Each structure stands twice: as C-alpha cells, then as structure tokens.
Amino acid sequence: MLHIGPPGIGARYEQANSNRPANRSTSQPAANNTGNANPAGMPPNACRAFWTDGECENSFSCRFRHVKPGANFREQDPPLPPRAPLNNDDVAYASNPYTGALPGAGLTPTQAHNRIKLYLKPDYEFRSSEDYYSFVSILQSANAENHTWFLKDGQELLQLMGDPTGNGIRRIQEVLSHPNVSSEAGFNQGLLSFQRGYLPLLAYFSSEFVVRSTIQTNVNALYGLIHADLDHVTLAIKSCMESCMARRSFGEPGNPQSGLHVFKAVITPLHDMAADI
Q: Among the residues of the chain, which ranges form H helices?
C-alpha cells in the first residue's frame, strides 16, 4: 500500500534516498577497514571512514563502531532523558498522522548504530526484560521529533530492521511474541512491560520513517509480523489497555504515559496493517 502524505514529503524522501541503493541486503555486514593501516589513535573495532571523515557510506550495515576522535563513551551512549509532562504541543504532535506516536528516546543515529550491533548477532538471546527495553529504546529513538535523525537515517535503519532475512526483524518478532505482557510489570523480570516494551515498538511502527517509507518490502515485512501473530498481539494490547483504563492510568511508577500517545501508537500500525490486507 502506497501512503500519500502532505505536499513536499515525496521530494524530501527522494532527496534523502537519492544516493542509496534500494533494498540493499543487510545479511552480510559491509566492511570499511580494508586496505591501508588504521590512523594513529583509532580504537580497535572502530570504522576508519567514520573516524576520519565523520561519515560512513555503509551506515547501519557497517560492522564497525562509529566513533570520532575525542568523543568519550558518555557522548556515545548518554542516559535517556526523562519524559516531559503532556502539554499543548503534545496534542498537536499526537494528532499529526506523520509523526511518531510516543516521545522518543534520545539516541543519535551514531549511538543507535553502535548499540544495535549486539542484537543483530545470530546467536543473541534476550535474557531479561531489561534486554528487551534496551533494544526497543533504540528503535524508539528513530522518530521525526528527534532532530538528530534525518529521513536518510530513518530509511537506513528501516533497511536493516525490516530486512526479511536479517536478524533485526527476528528480534522485533521476539518482542511481539513475548508470552507475558503486562501494564503493571514493575521490576518483574518474567514480565514484559506494556509501557516500556510493547508501546515503544508499536511507536516505531507508527513513526514517519516507517509509515511514510517507500521501501515497501521492508515495511510489509514489519507489518507482516503483526499479521502473523495477530491473535497474540491484539490480546496483549486488549488486556493491557483494559487494565490501564480500569486503574485510570496508562503509566507505571516513574514512567508516566499520555493517553494520546498510547492510542496513537496502538491504532496506527493496526489500521495500516488492516488497510493492506
């Protein structure tokens, strides 16, 4: 299904995608450190092109860490910002069909590139709920309201995570199929928090970088995950939403949520998936 958006959006995507091969395979990570010796001071396993020029043509498919001279690890991986209370700007933001549904995590594309590598290993396994939350926070960072991300960055992440043969889409499927999703998970490592695990993933499905993308093979692969496990996904959403409404709160202790953002995250992917059937 081709999504038609506001005037000018197509031109922005055409410009962002003009220098990138369509649907480049991400099953074999690209190498960028062949040839001459590495520059002095470059740390092990760092990308030479990014270290030297601040850019890497392989983007998310590069197998090396993207670090710059002088950058420390706190700059590479900052703590996530606290969630701000709902205001009038949030109302306009949530009512705009071309923005993401939840306030995003604060990772830059470079930080997301470096963090995502762990989860793309073929033998990776989620061992605790915190592992799930760390993974989805990377995807949650990819939204139009995070001004460090441009359309090109969002499309390159989608190429990686929506690759039907890649490990990224397997990790997303493992989140969606978690057997114990709860809106009151707290610190229980046997439960997946609806607010910290499910909603951020659905928000990524709702983001401009996905719903406005022209990489239809990858978009269809993502929405196909919901369709393939529709009974489980809808049951998890239904039970958690009913629990939230019964206690009149969509949040958890220390993790408040806006009903506007929650409903947008839930409705958009289900609506788009149904429209494609």
A: 9-17, 48-53, 73-76, 88-95, 109-116, 129-141, 151-161, 167-176, 199-206, 208-211, 216-228, 230-246, 259-276
> Is 115 within 8 Å of 76 (Cβ atoms)?
no
Three-class SS state of 270: helix
**Closest-CA residue to 113 (of 72, 151, 77):** 77
Reduce the DSSP state of residue 182 to 3 states and report it.
strand
DSSP-based helix, strand, coil % in the chain, nearest 5 = 50, 5, 45
Q: The whole model's pTM is what?
A: 0.69
Structure tokens, 269: 């992917």
Closest listed residue to residue 68, CA positions, set 51, 56, 53:
51
In the beta sheet, which residues pair with residue 193?
182
Which structure tokens are listed for 53? 């020029």
Number of residues that make up the chain: 277
Question: Is 71 strand, coil or helix?
Answer: coil
159-198 tens-digit pLDDT? 999 999 999 999 999 999 999 999 999 889 899 999 999 9
Rounded Cα–Cα distance for residues 224 and 94 (Å): 25
